[in-house]
Specification:
By secondary structure, the protein is mainly alpha-helical. It has 13 helices and seven strands. The chain has helices at residues 7-16, 20-32, 36-41, 78-81, 103-113, 121-134, 139-146, 155-160, 169-185, 198-204, 215-226, 231-238, 242-253, and strands at residues 47-48, 53-55, 70-72, 93-94, 97-98, 295-296, 302-303. The strands form three sheets. The chain has a three-stranded antiparallel beta sheet with strand order 1-2-3, with no helix packed on it. A two-stranded antiparallel sheet has the order 4-5. A two-stranded antiparallel sheet has the order 6-7. α1 (7-16) crosses α5 (103-113). The longest helix is centred in the middle third of the chain and has 17 residues, at 169-185.
Length: 307
């Protein structure tokens, strides 16, 4: 089921994530200790912002031996859960459609992070549990996060106990402590700003190149890129060449992590929110091959290496 990993290795995974959905997956997994399937199932309806709780058991799913608990939401996770307002939308999605498998994406992530094959999606869950034990979190709180109901617990307790203000407070504090450690090792990923103000960021980024279009046009191009528009749409709306847009994209990437967008349902660099307009609940795999070692996106842009 995968060896436990330490905060430094978790940071390597976050830095290696070159897509919005994988970054979301990792942040949620690290803050909930949820099984991979529970992370992929998570939708907006499961986040209770009023009480600051997330129910890992989606509506309609019957609890079984792999219990999915209601958990308190910490400061590192809350901004990510606030990025979805449509109750139907999945947090881990590609093109506004739920991702049903991360198998291939995980292997690419391991290669980029330089980690061995013993690291699996379950390694995050096991690693976080071990970090909780190191921080002396009571065993019953660890069990709750892992979906192992403590002895004597019943269904009623598992439903109402999470709304106690001190519910799993020591476990939550330990998770935040681990997230502090992870931040110390991060070199690329920004896990504190899942929602960006595209207009403000477009104004704040300077330009090294004075030739070509003027400052106002560069700011417009930055805004379009940061708003999550695909490359060809930015070219069309700004009325400039593809090369100019690529140059501005490189300037942004020198300042912040920037993920190449291929369709308006995915935003860059982090999680600009767009409410899904489709009623289609069908899932799709995220991998679309475009030749050896490459991924062809929906707008036929071939992505390879750094995005």
């Amino acid at each position: 089921m995968g060896r436990p990993i330490v905060p430094k290795e978790m940071a390597l995974l976050l830095d290696a994530a070159n897509s919005r959905h994988m970054l979301s997956y990792l942040v949620i997994a690290m803050n909930t200790l949820a099984r991979p399937a529970a992370v992929l199932d998570l939708r907006g309806v499961q986040f209770d912002e009023t009480h600051n709780r997330v129910d890992l058991n989606p509506p309609g799913r019957r609890q079984n031996k792999k219990h999915r608990p209601i958990l308190a939401v910490g400061p590192s996770l809350k901004p990510w859960l606030q990025t979805v307002s449509d109750p139907r939308q999945h947090y881990v999605s590609y093109g506004s459609r739920p991702v049903k498998s991360i198998t291939t994406a995980w292997q690419l992530l391991l290669q980029e992070a330089g980690l061995d094959d013993r690291v699996t999606p379950y390694s995050i869950r096991h690693g976080m549990a071990r970090e909780m034990r190191k921080r002396k979190v009571p065993g019953d709180q660890i069990s709750i996060f892992l979906g192992h109901l403590p002895k004597g617990s019943d269904a009623t307790t598992s439903i109402y106990a999470p709304y106690d203000p001190d519910y799993c407070s020591e476990a939550l504090a330990a998770i935040e402590d681990v997230m502090v450690d992870i931040r110390k090792y991060l070199k690329r990923a920004n896990i504190d700003q899942p929602v960006i103000d595209a207009a403000a960021l477009a104004k704040s980024i300077g330009s090294k190149f004075k030739r070509g279009v003027g400052d106002s046009k560069r700011e417009e191009i930055r805004f379009l890129i940061l708003s999550g528009l695909p490359h060809k749409e930015v070219v069309k709306r700004a009325g400039v060449s593809s090369g100019t847009v690529s140059t501005v994209r490189r300037e942004i990437r020198d300042v912040i992590p920037l993920y190449r967008n291929s369709e308006s349902g995915i935003c860059v660099p982090f999680a600009c929110h767009r409410v899904a307009s489709s009623d289609d609940d069908g899932a799709q795999a995220i991998e679309r091959t475009g030749g050896p070692g490459r991924t062809r996106t929906c707008d036929l842009t071939v992505m390879s290496g750094q995005l």
